[in-house]
Amino acid sequence: MTFQDQITGIASELEMILDLDELEAKVYLNLLRAGPITASALAKELDIDRARMYRTVDKLVSRNIISTTLSSPKLCIAAEPQDALKIALRKKEDEVNRIKKDGEAIIEKINREITTKQGTNAPTFRVVQGRGNIYADIAQLIENSSGIIYISTTLEDISRMYHSAIPEKITVCEKRGGKVRLLVELDDPKLISFVKRFNATETKICKLPSKGRMVVQKDKQMIMSDSTSASQMSSNSESDFSLCTNSSEMVSNIHSLCSLLWDTAQPITSLDVKNYITKTK
C-alpha cells in the first residue's frame, strides 16, 4: 500500500472529525508528513492546481489547522493532530452553546407572542442534504426509540457513523429498552472487529439489495438514501441526500424488507462469516 493510499483511508475518517472536505484533509495529512513546505511545492507534489491549493491553505489557516511563516516564500506548517482536535472540539462546543442560548431565547419569544396551532395526521416527507444532517436525524431517531430499529448500510457508511453521535445514542436506546439491529454486507472476515466496534445491539451479514442506506423503526419513521447518493459519500459529504418520512405505507414496506433480510441473514461470528462468504462466492 502506497503512502497516498494510506492518506486516502485516514482522510475519510478525518473529514468527519475535523469537519474538512476531502482536499482539506488530504492537504493537512500531507503537510504533517512533509513538514514545512510552500503551498506551491505542495500543489506540485499532489498534482493540484496552485490557485486551488492557495484557497485551501487560506481556509485551513483561518481555522488554525495550519499556519504560515513570515518568511519569503511562506512555508505552510500543520498543527499537531491533538491540537487540531482541540480546535475542532472548541468550535463544536461554542456552536452548541450558541444554539442553546439563542434557541431558548427564541422559544420563549414564540411562546409569549405567537399562538401556535399544531396537530395533523397527514404523513410528512423531508429531503435532508448533507451527511452531518442525516446522521443527526438518525441519532435522534435512535435516541428517542424504545423499540427495534434496523440499520442497513455499507461498510463505508458504518465507518463514518462510528465517528458521529450514533454509537452513543445506541446505548441510550438500549437503556430505554430498545434495540438497534445492523445489517451489513461483508466479504472479509478480518473486518468483523471493525463492524463490531459500531456498538449495534445485534449485527448480521447478508447480501443487501442496494448500496444505499435504510434506517427504519416500525410504525414510526424511516430514513433512506439511494445507492447514487451513497456512492458519492466519499467524495463530498454534501452530495449525500436522504428521504425522511413517517408515511405508514412507506415505513411498513421498508420495515418488512429489513425484517425479511434480518430473518435470512447470518450472525456475525468469524466462523459464520467465513462460511457465508464461501457460499456466496
Describe the structure.
- Pfam families: TrmB (PF01978).
- This is Transcriptional regulator, TrmB.
- InterPro entries: TrmB-like, Tscrpt_reg_TrmB_N, WH-like_DNA-bd_sf, WH_DNA-bd_sf.
- The protein is an alpha+beta fold and about 280 residues long.
- The protein has two domains: about 5-80, Orthogonal Bundle (Arc Repressor Mutant, subunit A); about 125-280, Endonuclease Chain A (Endonuclease, Chain A, 2-Layer Sandwich).
- The chain is about 55% helix and about 15% strand.
- It is built from twelve helices and ten strands.
- It has helices spanning about 5-20, 20-35, 40-45, 50-60, 80-115, 130-145, 155-160, 165-175, 190-195, 225-230, 250-265, 270-280; strands at about 65-70, 75-80, 125-130, 150-155, 180-185, 200-205, 215, 220-225, 240-245, 265.
- It has an eight-stranded mixed beta sheet with strand order 3-9-8-7-4-5-6-10, sandwiched between helices. A two-stranded antiparallel sheet has the order 1-2.
- A hairpin with a 3-residue loop joins strand 7 and strand 8 (about 220-225).
- Helix 1 crosses helix 2 (about 20-35), helix 2 (about 20-35) packs across helix 4 (about 50-60) and helix 6 (about 130-145) packs parallel to helix 8.
- The radius of gyration is 22 Å and the shape is globular.
- The two termini are about 25 Å apart.
